[in-house]
Amino acid sequence: MRLRGVGRRYGLAGPWVLRGVDLDLPARALVRVEGANGTGKSTLLRLLAGIDAPSEGRITGRGPRTAYVPERFSAALPFTAAGYLAHLGRIHGLRPADAAARASGRLTRFGAAAHAGTPLAELSKGTSQKVAVAQALLAEPELLVLDEAWTGLDTEARGELDLAVVERVAAGATVVYVDHDPHRLAGAVDAAYRVEGQALVPAPLAAPDAAPGPRILIEATCAPGTPLPARLPGAPEGTAAPDGTARLTVPAAHSDALLGALLTARPPWHISQVTAAGARAGRPASRDGAP
């Protein structure tokens, strides 16, 4: 996806919110957008998602499957939580049974299964946000745009969204996000930008060790001389040895996505052991050929 000379203002004579924005968004990339309140971050994300059109300039290369999660999800729709997701699934071309199953799975993943039959208008803000996240992931988008999507989620759901983002990138998608937590997905970000004075400028990446929480050591083997797949989820530390062994350390939030990427690589890697980083012994992996 490519932006060239993009600007946005509201009204024919309104002040410019953004102007002269050039940006290339490759596939399989996690991109963070920063900036002070009111600088135009949400405007940029709405342009990327196709919700707003630029007042000048061009946006090209947007894929057919784009999803967007706003900070506040509008619940003024005549559906239950599960009914809304199943309806969107059918719009995306899923068969009714598949749409219902996928809707149920997304609600369960984000801890909202108990509210499947609740009308959207009666959901709490936190549960509404879980539905908003679930609907964005329903069609496995090629471009996922998250505007403070973690706001209102409980700790477990925030962790699941972290993991879901890493999974989408590992699957080849582009994810662009804004979040107030400067350490959100630290170490996994491929590029960062700051909205400043109507322009978009590069921003420094957070150091991988800025990511809080435990780290996981994954030991894997493959045929001698096999290189590791490029751009593994979570930006793991470690390399493959000439004898076909690898020891990779990654934040725990990214460990499942990293395992999936290794197992689905061509050729696939055999996972021999998964342990807490720094532990003396660990558990053998239960998966060795398929995710």
TrEMBL record:
It comes from the Bacteria. GO terms for molecular function: ATP binding. Pfam families: ABC_tran. InterPro entries: AAA+_ATPase, ABC_transporter-like_ATP-bd, ABC_Transporter_VariousFunc, P-loop_NTPase. Residues 1-222 form the ABC transporter domain. Keywords: ATP-binding, Nucleotide-binding, Transport. This is ATP-binding cassette domain-containing protein. It comes from Streptomyces castrisilvae. The lineage of its organism: Bacteria, Bacillati, Actinomycetota, Actinomycetes, Kitasatosporales.
